[in-house]
Amino acid sequence: MEIPDLAGGDFEHLTVTGQLAIVAQLLENGGPAILIGSSLGGYLAALSAARHPEQVERVILLAPAFGFYELWTRDLGQERLKSWRKNGSIPVFHYGEGREMPLAFDLMEDAAKFEGFPEIRQPGLLFHGVDDPVVPIVNSRRYAGSLPNIHLVELRSGHELTDVLDNMWRATRDFLLGKAP
Which of 35, 75, 126, 174 gets the most CB atoms within 10 Å of its CB? Predict the structure, then answer.
């Protein structure tokens, strides 16, 4: 199991392109993979699976940030986006570090280049909380509804899904064993 630092040690200059390069390098160095990602990591797992179908067998997504660029554009609003662009960076809470850290506007410029809903062909299991205030569940419903290989599990939870781990584990085990949902 690999849990890479997708920021490559430089959170401030994080980009989608840079994160995808880290995943691509791991895929090149290993055998067939199962990608698991949450929120932005879920979106990145889907982007990676779409770009490397021969190296990714299955995908497990937790509240994936589909439509990432549009979500951030909407949530921040035009004034904050203008300020971010002008200042070059904004403080963003980094959950791994437990504190706010600067994030360069490069992320948004780069994210605009990527499709919001990458089409993957591998079997996928998608978990999403119906009470998620960060990423609307409608995005996951749209995604799963457009791809027959994606199974959506809606859970009575929020964005972090930490209160439904047992349910997620059982569904994941069955998915990995090839049992029908």
Answer: 35
